């Protein structure tokens, strides 16, 4: 467990779905790990079971149904304020996905934990690209006074608003705080991508941007997440500008394009063709663009980018 002046977070066996820890059957469920082949009454439900069902709807992008499920979850009696706040936070995320921002704000107003409510309000504004409103309302927010388990999320959202306003220094400071206070490796990966983008685009600091990107794929073992692919793209852009073509190709080789499918295969092919073109391998670059254009599943934006690049190559 972690107990600090600005919040508490308990052990891995704490999420029993109740305000207390002594729930023997829930302990057994977590203790047994991923194997849940033991007697259970399927009619029984509680916060954790209902939360899992709501998240399954969310993963299937059934946002309206998921929102309804999360709201119902928040209305369960005898749940903690954090559980209620988390359920409403997820419901607000569903409302944003449906572009129902008034509903998202209504849900934020019902969240009892203030730091979570403020984070949701920032997310609501950010999703509408109202970066200035985020800063106007939350610039003076002292995130160090927030519960430590929520401060990272608040810093990450505010950093993205600063990024949108091209205030690179303020964005960097908040991204650094978010990175330090975020324990989840997947969330850290997203922060590193945005940190790299901010350093590259707003601060014009390719060296430190490359460092942020590299943390997402060096020693990763396997590259498969969207944030890792975005980091590879960023690194290749920088290495091309630095004319370090061999290094860029080594980075590209990490993703194993031949094994990829879908949007990230197409994105990596665009990066590959761009690298080949920059290193004066024009014919090879053109072949990659042509191969990409043969695929009927290529998205419109990617197709247009490939067509424009190929037309430019043909003029050389």
List the helices and strands and how they pair.
Elements: E1 2-4, E2 7-9, H1 24-31, H2 47-59, H3 63-74, H4 81-97, H5 101-109, H6 114-127, H7 131-138, H8 148-164, H9 168-181, H10 185-202, H11 206-214, H12 226-241, H13 245-253, H14 263-278, H15 282-294, H16 300-314
Antiparallel strand pairs: 1-2
Helix pairs in contact: 2-3, 3-4, 4-5, 4-6, 5-6, 6-7, 6-8, 7-8, 8-9, 9-10, 10-11, 10-12, 11-12, 12-13, 12-14, 13-14, 14-15, 14-16, 15-16
Description:
The chain is mainly alpha-helical and 316 residues long. It has a domain at 131-183. 66% of the residues lie in helices and 2% in strands. It is built from 16 helices and two strands. The chain has helices spanning 24-31, 47-59, 63-74, 81-97, 101-109, 114-127, 131-138, 148-164, 168-181, 185-202, 206-214, 226-241, 245-253, 263-278, 282-294, 300-314, and strands spanning 2-4, 7-9. The protein has a two-stranded antiparallel sheet with strand order 1-2. Strand 1 and strand 2 form a beta hairpin. Helix 11 (206-214) packs antiparallel against helix 12 (226-241) and helix 12 (226-241) runs antiparallel to helix 13 (245-253). Mean pLDDT is 90; it is low at 11-16.
- Unreliable sequence segments: 11-16
Strands ordered across the widest β-sheet: 1-2
- pLDDT averaged over residues: 90
Largest sheet composition = 2 strands, antiparallel
Number of strands: 2
Q: What portion of residues belong to β-strands?
A: under 5%
Helical amount: 55-70%
Our measurement of the CA-to-CA distance between the termini, rounded to an integer number of angstroms, reads 63 Å
Order of helices and strands: EEHHHHHHHHHHHHHHHH
């Amino acid at each position: 467990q972690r107990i600090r002046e600005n919040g508490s977070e308990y052990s891995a066996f704490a999420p029993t779905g109740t305000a207390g820890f002594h729930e023997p059957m829930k302990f057994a469920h977590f203790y047994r790990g991923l194997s849940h082949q033991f007697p259970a009454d399927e009619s029984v439900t509680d916060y954790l079971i209902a939360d899992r069902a709501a998240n399954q709807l969310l993963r299937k992008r059934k946002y309206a149904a998921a929102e309804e499920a999360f709201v119902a979850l928040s209305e369960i009696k005898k749940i903690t304020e954090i559980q209620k706040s988390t359920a409403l936070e997820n419901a607000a995320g569903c409302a944003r996905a449906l572009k129902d921002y008034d509903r998202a704000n209504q849900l934020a107003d019902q969240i009892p934990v203030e730091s979570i409510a403020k984070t949701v309000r920032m997310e609501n504004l950010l999703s509408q690209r109202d970066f200035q409103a985020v800063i106007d309302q939350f610039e003076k927010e002292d995130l160090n006074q927030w519960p430590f388990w929520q401060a990272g999320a608040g810093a990450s959202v505010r950093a993205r608003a600063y990024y949108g306003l091209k205030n690179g220094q303020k964005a960097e400071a908040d991204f650094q705080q978010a990175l330090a206070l975020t324990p989840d490796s997947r969330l850290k990966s997203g922060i590193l991508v945005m940190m790299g983008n901010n350093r590259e685009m707003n601060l014009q600091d390719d060296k430190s941007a490359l460092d942020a990107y590299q943390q997402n794929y060096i020693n990763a073992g396997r590259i498969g997440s969207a944030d890792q692919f975005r980091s590879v793209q960023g690194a290749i852009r920088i290495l091309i500008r630095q004319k370090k073509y061999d290094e860029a190709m080594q980075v590209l080789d990490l993703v194993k394009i031949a094994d990829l499918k879908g949007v990230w295969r197409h994105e990596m092919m665009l990066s590959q063709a761009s690298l080949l073109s920059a290193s004066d391998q024009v014919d090879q670059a053109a072949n990659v663009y042509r191969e990409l254009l043969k695929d009927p599943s290529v998205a419109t934006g990617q197709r247009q980018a490939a067509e424009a690049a190929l037309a430019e190559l043909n003029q050389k």
